[in-house]
Amino acid sequence: MNAPKTKWSLEDENTLIELVEKYESKGKSKQEAFEMVANIINRTKTACASRYRKLSKDQFKEINKPKEVTKLNNPINPPSMNIEMAIQFLMNFEQKHKASEENRQLKERVVKLKIENENLNKKIVNLKTLIQKKQNVLINLTE
Question: Taking the model in full, what pTM does it have?
Answer without folding.
Answer: 0.42
